[in-house]
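PROTEIN ENTRY
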Amino acid sequence: MRVNDESQLIDASLLGDSSAFGQLVRIHQDRLYNAVANFIGDRTEAEDVVQEAFVQAYLKLASFKQNAAFYTWLYRIAFNTAVSRKRRKRVETSVDQTREVTGNEPIDESGTPGDRMMREEQATQVHAALGLLSDEHRAILVLREMEELDYDAIAEILNLNIGTVRSRLHRARAQMREKLNEVETR
């Protein structure tokens, strides 16, 4: 969808057209769900967070400044919702939960069974290590490496300046390497 079309859907939503907001939900729900699921590590919880984020977005739509990307604004609502819910629960993410959320990694059918097993084991280790990171480091890695957002978008979502994004990403990558080493030696 072009930005102009999305802008028109937002305008129609603000005028009370609930089907226009429904279209915005359909456009963004899968991407938002995947990002939140990678951050939280629990499919059911991710569904709840995304649903709550869309409700909040609908209620706060009048405060959305259309000079920013709608998805970035929406992701920030979802991210804040996820962090709030995690603080309330204080439950550690398990390796099994992380794997359940992300599902099996795509498998290259041309590889040998040994290659596929190695990739699956590496994916499991990456998801386990990701689950061991702090929320702020996990969030920035998910946004940069999985969502492939640029530094400006990450800064806007996390309400940080670009320099902080760069330094936090550097620390997150270092912490990820450390956690991967821990997971590999288990």
About this structure: The CA atoms of residues 137 and 168 lie 7 Å apart. The domain at 1-94 is CATH 1.10.1740.10 (Rna Polymerase Sigma Factor; Chain: A). The chain has two domains: 1-94, 111-186. The first helix runs from residue 3 to 14.
